[in-house]
Amino acid sequence: MTARHDIETITDRIRERSKASREAYLARIAQARGSTANRSVLSCGNLAHGFAVCSPSEKVALGGDRVPNLGIITAYNDMLSAHQPFETYPALIKQAAKEAGGIAQVAGGVPAMCDGVTQGQPGMELSLFSRDVIAMAAAIGLSHNMFDAAAFLGVCDKIVPGLLMAALSFGHLPAVFIPAGPMTSGLPNDEKAKVRQLYAEGKCGRAELLEAESKSYHGPGTCTFYGTANSNQMLMEIMGLHLPGASFINPGTPLRDALTREAAKRALAITALGNAYTPVGAMVDERVIVNGVVGLHATGGSTNHTIHLIAIAAAAGIRLTWQDISDLSEAVPLLARVYPNGLADVNHFAAAGGMGFLIRELLDAGLLHEDVQTVFGEGLRPYAIEPKLGADGSVQREPAPATSGDEKILAPFPKAFQPTGGLKVLSGNLGHAIIKTSAVKPERRVIEAPARVFDDQAELNDAFKAGELTGDFIAIVRFQGPKANGMPELHRLTTVLGVLQDRGQHVALVTDGRMSGASGKVPAAIHVTPEALEGGVIGKVRDGDLVRLDAEAGTLELKVPDAELAQRPAPVADLSANAFGFGRELFTGFRAMATRADLGASAFGTA
């Protein structure tokens, strides 16, 4: 089935805009395959180093170029709950590779930070740029040129985007992404949020808060809310980089292990040494990028991907824009209600029909490009399935259920929760920004109120504790962009502003920083560009200025005459405290080179 006309039109627009950069990219990966993508170009000394610890039979096999070698890039550490299961994956993958007549080696490890640990802490200022570090670290692992395909072990926020950027820089190699799955359900996310608000108001103590948080985040696997980590998993499946049905199977289960073994064998089957060669750089084209954006909208996914998807596309020579993302949001209805867009968690989503049901509904509605290449083969239709464990321990796949298991969580296309995806570009004299409306009640999507200006989130929190945030207002939190301090997430402001909103005040947030993938019920215009440090108008806002945020009309306006704005001096901010400590001094160059948020906030430039 072909995609609907409006989806095709946006895809064609991206393809035409990207023509020169995409052709140059494809030429580079073709050259890489032709001149360097095999072990035969390595000297005997090179090879001896590369297989020194291998068995004698593996050394013989790797001495030629007829046996495929799978390079494993792992983001394992045992502090991230989502990544702890990866500890055992290399052994599982190596055994599966051996059974398939190939070899697997751990090519390298990449850093993996937990944004849940660093929220509101200095380390959060390293978070966004960790994506670029991960891409660079993965590239170092693959640079040894020992590999015919790559398996990427990663789940969380910046990690999967960074790994995919690296995979695309080695676009001549096939790449299969292997997830670990979500933790089992714990304390419901809405109950956890209530305890957070009680703590912010001084109505419960730290012990009660820690108990609630621990009951919510309680074991191996991703956090169960639908933030950036689980949005990553959705993207890898709908973009054809996971095997069908792989995303949301819990860790430590026989089906999870069966999917991992199958992924390793499939990666070896699609190398240039076989008949199903699937280089990731050719596979991830404009249609695949559009499919990812469609999935983001249909599920109410993380706002972080309005940055990451642009950087990922650029790594493949594709020029995606915020306007493309916004226009696709207008075309794609919201089919999933998972916290913070609803009360369910990702396990409930999976039980209701999960990715297979969602993909089938979107394909049948013409909202996805079906005629794409995936790591599983030709076309996206084989992803409209439900995975099962066969009697022999292998993965079996059945057609996705005909009906949703719970239409309050996962809706069929005719019963969509809302006609649009809920991500919108705001434009006006304050610049361009992104707003996620899928979790914001319609009556709160337009607000005009006086500004309260803060230079960091700590100032706002202090004002809240002092009881100074009275009446209706729009909080302006500036000097939080990529160049200022690495664009940290300001997730902790969600609780404070949520308390005020629940008291009956009309409040909103406008910032050149980011919010978490858990952006919630308070209207938030985020990623404002140009940022304050680059002379953006957000830096000229003063306390009491009238600001209008209209998520329905897509506008963000500072109600100050242009002549007066022109006379206002650019603000001077003391950012010295952000420059040192917790490794921040090592990222000075990243901050200096970072592109704008709407260009991917990357130190690598644009497509």
UniProtKB/TrEMBL annotation:
How are cofactors bound according to the entry's free-text note?
Binds 1 [4Fe-4S] cluster.
Q: Specify the pathway.
A: Carbohydrate metabolism; Entner-Doudoroff pathway
Q: What class of enzyme is it?
A: lyase
State the source organism's domain of life: Bacteria
Q: Which reaction does it catalyse?
A: 6-phospho-D-gluconate = 2-dehydro-3-deoxy-6-phospho-D-gluconate + H2O
UniProt cofactor(s) = [4Fe-4S] cluster
What GO MF terms are annotated? Answer: phosphogluconate dehydratase activity
- Biological function: Catalyzes the dehydration of 6-phospho-D-gluconate to 2-dehydro-3-deoxy-6-phospho-D-gluconate.
Q: What is this protein called?
A: Phosphogluconate dehydratase
Origin species, per record, is Aquamicrobium soli
